């Protein structure tokens, strides 16, 4: 089995509920402290969209998993948001959230926090409803394919978001770089890419699944973006504090990048 096939196999045991519990509940989701990792991620995204530079008809989120926090500050700036994931279990979690089915993960603290830091006086219920309305497509994706969405892609997106996906599904640096090149085909020339990911991580847990991650440094991420032709507008790094090292992974930190695909000459 190729190592990409082995990664695909290891994801078959991915448990969305355990993943959400490990990463999106306290202590990692402590909204009383801006120094905590979850508020840090939300602020990076809110500030990027607040520039007003990132907007258009369609935004594609690559490897959404069972989460929607990464789309909260995007929803005012796009007519349609397309969520994607490799696993049906994750797409089902997202469909259930869009349909407001009972017993889903409670994203309300995230939505309230996003409204607070955006500072536009928006009511959280309004934002929740807006995002549900804009999330009209939840599609299967494989970032290891040269065309990750295949024939499902009608036209390249105006912007991409991807959080904790590419390094978490790539067995080594060359496949990480190739995956980045593949997802770049989903973006139109001149389009913006907000990429968040783990720094120097080698594994994470999601229930019974232990997923291998390719450890990447800040320099590796910048180099991969450069090789795919991006211009980097903003690059930030977060150092995981000892109190948030809780045994569910061995992550050292988190990177955030706002990059842009060059317009056609
Ligand atoms: N974006 C979410 C977040 O911010 O927490 C989830 C990230 S999770 C670490 C990695 C995600 O990549 C999982 O949802 C997994 O199903 C998805 N995935 C696994 N293999 C993939 C592939 N070949 N192409 C795209 N996504 C994949």
TrEMBL record:
One Pfam family cited in the UniProt record for this chain: NNMT_PNMT_TEMT
Family annotation (InterPro entries): NNMT_TEMT_trans (IPR000940), SAM-dep_methyltransferase (IPR053384), SAM-dependent_MTases_sf (IPR029063)
Gene Ontology CC annotation, any one: cytosol
GO molecular function, one term: phenylethanolamine N-methyltransferase activity
Listed GO biological process terms: methylation
Family: Belongs to the class I-like SAM-binding methyltransferase superfamily. NNMT/PNMT/TEMT family.
Annotated protein name in UniProt: Rho GTPase-activating protein 15
